[in-house]
């Protein structure tokens, strides 16, 4: 029978006192019927008045949820779920209701909490409730087959949280959660192809990644100094000698044991311990248990944003080209690669002369990750990539090529013959710029090096090289490459940009008139932008700016300050307002955002919003501001540049550079910790 709308309000007024009395006296039958009526009425409420009266029922909900009558408590939980859309904020703000729901954790209570968690406010309230996550994790640990509602609720609370909460609010719970979650992940991965199981698998992968990313790194088993001693020699001058004589200049073979010391055996055994099994067994295990490592934008330092970018890929299988390549090169051509994109049939390909190239080993192996970290600290970089290469006897994987980064090749198993052309590219390549291997056919003369187990080969960027497993070798070749990739912020160009940022920030903080431009129409940001662009244009034409800035290296170098002074002199002499202004005008008119992508990282230096959308900022503060006033702008720019080149402080730039490096390292290592934990599930 239909009720009139006014009847709903009347019944609510009438039975609220009865609810209170029944709850106190525990009149179970009456209480059950009254809560049932409340539930049906809450589903019918439409007007604000009716909603207001339903909210009155919330006052007795803690009593009802704690009722000794299971049916009453279950109906009260359903009432919470039914009212969660309209009264979400009111219910979530009531600590007594949340506590009552968390105390019991019956299935109906879990469903009510899930319904309540549709809003970010409710999720925040639950996350910060002192009993919520400990209670949920305790329940999860007590059930070998946890309910879907319980698991979904935990995953929802973790996967919608911020990195700050993960680093503080779950710190004590994280190891316990991982201990429970990792076996579940492996179970879901192997159990079913049903869509809801796959959804749970990906959500659980994201939870494990998020929790692990917030945990501290384990204490390193060796330092960058010990790694340097093992490779280059025990004296600090040995590494300096390598930098002066070979770095970005010439290849170098480092024979196993040539720099023996007391930690040599420890370092070598740590690396080779990952590969003690037969080679086929090792690769089979790695490929079966490896997941894709989703690519991220290198300048995204906000892990919350990174989470959102990669969450759909976490837990997915290996992706050809992104994670792995299976390929071979004909012995006659040297330059034509054949690919075999069927990862599950790698053994067949391997028997037919194909090599396996697996990227991102620093994310897949707890034994290899410390080497990546030590190399990054040795060279003052945020991260170092590690690839694995397995080739059958007599086979060549990659064709003759050069890299846009320096590499250290560490031979783990078997022997490999490397051929390196004596003449590198005329101009040293820059990271991420297009590769042109045609120059290789125009040169003559090569160096041939046989790498045996434990040997290390350094190849500078720009040197053409190829490698083939020794034909008469009885075992396949397995080696790792450590890629020393110099990104724009960590070139000398990047350091000069950092120096300009430090100086301009100090300029903006000055209250005196020591830096007073003649034309006050142009804000300092106009000249700062023009000088940033001018530095970029000068750098594009000078390889001196592309070299690795080792200001953050653990080793002292005497020539860092002199290198900086030399580059500042170049900027002072060659900075050109007209060239920079015309370049900016062209980029703005044609909307060529790709031309300024290499400067996107500047937003990690500046706290303001100007560098978030560099194209719009250039248009507003340079093109529009200087339109029709080029002579005045030119005069001010020359003065601004002169002040910068005269007064910039190297030590200030060093401090700012180290702070920037710390941000990059933190972001990269959070990603590393998350991926290592996902691979640790096996």
Q: If you had to describe this structure to a student in words, what would you say it looks like?
A:
It is built from 28 helices and eleven strands. It is of the alpha+beta class and 682 residues long. The chain is globular, with a radius of gyration of 32 Å. The strands form two sheets. An eight-stranded antiparallel beta sheet has the order 1-9-6-11-5-4-2-3. The N terminus is likely disordered.
Question: In a few lines, what is going on in this structure?
Answer:
This protein is α+β, with helices and mostly antiparallel strands. The protein has 28 helices and 11 strands. The strands form 2 sheets. It has an 8-stranded antiparallel sheet with strand order 1-9-6-11-5-4-2-3.
Any chance you could write out the topology, listing elements then pairs?
Blueprint: H1 5-25, H2 28-44, H3 48-57, H4 61-65, H5 70-83, H6 88-93, H7 95-104, H8 107-116, H9 120-128, H10 132-142, H11 148-159, H12 163-168, H13 174-191, H14 195-214, H15 224-231, H16 236-245, E1 252-254, H17 264-272, H18 279-289, H19 303-310, E2 324-329, E3 337-339, H20 346-351, E4 355-358, H21 369-379, E5 385-391, E6 406-413, E7 416-421, E8 446-451, E9 456-459, E10 465-469, E11 477-484, H22 492-509, H23 524-540, H24 560-574, H25 577-590, H26 614-626, H27 630-647, H28 650-679
Antiparallel strand pairs: 1-9, 2-3, 2-4, 4-5, 5-11, 6-9, 6-11, 7-8, 7-10
Helix pairs in contact: 1-2, 1-3, 2-5, 5-8, 7-8, 8-11, 11-14, 13-14, 14-28, 15-21, 22-23, 22-28, 23-25, 23-26, 23-27, 25-26
């Amino acid at each position: 029978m239909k009720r009139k709308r006014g009847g709903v309000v009347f019944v609510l007024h009438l039975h609220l006192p009865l609810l209170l009395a029944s709850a106190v006296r525990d009149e179970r039958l009456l209480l059950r019927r009254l809560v049932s009526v409340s539930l049906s009425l809450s589903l019918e409420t439409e007007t604000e008045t009716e909603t207001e009266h339903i909210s009155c029922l919330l006052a007795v909900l803690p009593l009802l949820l704690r009722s000794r009558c299971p049916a009453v408590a279950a109906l009260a939980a359903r009432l919470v779920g039914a009212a969660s859309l309209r009264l979400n904020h009111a219910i979530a703000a009531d600590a007594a209701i949340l506590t009552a729901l968390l105390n019991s954790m019956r299935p109906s209570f879990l469903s009510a909490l899930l319904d309540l968690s549709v809003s970010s406010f409710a999720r925040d309230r639950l996350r910060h409730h002192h009993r919520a996550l400990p209670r949920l994790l305790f329940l999860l640990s007590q059930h070998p087959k946890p309910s879907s509602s319980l698991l979904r609720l935990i995953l929802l609370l973790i996967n919608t949280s911020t990195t700050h909460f993960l680093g503080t609010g779950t710190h004590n719970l994280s190891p316990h959660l991982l201990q429970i979650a990792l076996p579940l992940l492996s179970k879901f991965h192997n159990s079913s192809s049903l869509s809801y199981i796959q959804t749970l698998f990906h959500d659980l992968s994201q939870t494990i990644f998020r929790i692990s990313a917030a945990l501290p790194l384990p204490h390193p088993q060796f330092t960058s100094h010990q790694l340097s001693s093992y490779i280059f020699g025990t004296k600090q001058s040995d590494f300096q000698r390598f930098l002066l004589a070979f770095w970005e200049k010439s290849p170098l073979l480092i024979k196993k044991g040539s720099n023996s010391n007391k930690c040599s055996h420890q370092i070598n055994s740590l690396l080779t311990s990952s590969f003690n099994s037969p080679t086929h067994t090792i690769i089979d295990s790695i490929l079966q248990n490896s997941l894709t490592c989703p690519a991220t934008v290198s300048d995204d330092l906000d892990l919350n944003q990174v989470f959102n970018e990669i969450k759909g890929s976490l837990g997915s299988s290996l992706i050809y080209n992104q994670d792995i390549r299976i390929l071979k090169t004909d012995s006659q051509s040297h330059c034509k690669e054949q690919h075999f994109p069927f990862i599950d049939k790698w053994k067949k390909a391997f028997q037919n002369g194909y090599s396996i190239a697996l990227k991102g080993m620093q994310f897949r192996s707890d034994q290899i990750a410390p080497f990546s970290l030590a190399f990054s600290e040795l060279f003052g970089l945020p991260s170092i990539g590690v690839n694995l290469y397995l080739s059958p006897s007599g086979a060549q994987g990659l064709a003759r090529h050069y890299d846009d980064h320096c590499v250290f090749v560490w031979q783990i198993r078997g022997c490999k013959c490397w051929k390196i052309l004596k003449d590198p590219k005329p101009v040293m390549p820059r990271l991420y710029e297009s590769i042109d291997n045609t120059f290789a056919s125009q040169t003559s003369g090569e160096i041939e090096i046989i790498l045996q187990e434990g040997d290390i080969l350094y190849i500078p960027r720009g040197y053409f090289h190829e490698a083939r497993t020794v034909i008469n070798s009885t075992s396949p070749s397995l080696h790792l490459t450590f890629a020393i990739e110099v990104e724009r912020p960590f070139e000398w160009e990047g350091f000069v940009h950092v120096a300009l940022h430090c100086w301009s920030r100090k300029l903006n903080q000055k209250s005196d008139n020591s830096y007073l431009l003649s034309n006050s129409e142009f804000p300092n940001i106009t000249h700062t932008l023009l000088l940033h662009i001018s530095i970029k244009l000068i750098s594009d034409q000078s390889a001196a700016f592309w070299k690795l800035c080792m200001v953050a290296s653990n080793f002292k170098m005497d020539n860092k300050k002199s290198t900086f002074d030399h580059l500042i002199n170049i900027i002072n002499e060659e900075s050109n307002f007209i060239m920079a202004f015309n370049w900016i005008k062209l980029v703005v008119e044609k909307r060529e955002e790709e031309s300024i992508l290499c400067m996107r990282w500047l937003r990690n230096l500046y706290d303001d919003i100007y560098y978030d959308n560099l194209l719009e900022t250039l248009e507003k503060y340079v093109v529009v501001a200087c339109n029709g006033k080029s002579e005045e702008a030119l005069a001010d720019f020359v003065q601004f540049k002169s002040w910068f080149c005269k007064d910039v402080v190297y030590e200030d730039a060093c401090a700012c550079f180290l702070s920037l490096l710390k941000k990059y390292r933190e972001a990269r290592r959070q990603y590393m910790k998350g991926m290592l934990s996902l691979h640790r599930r096996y």
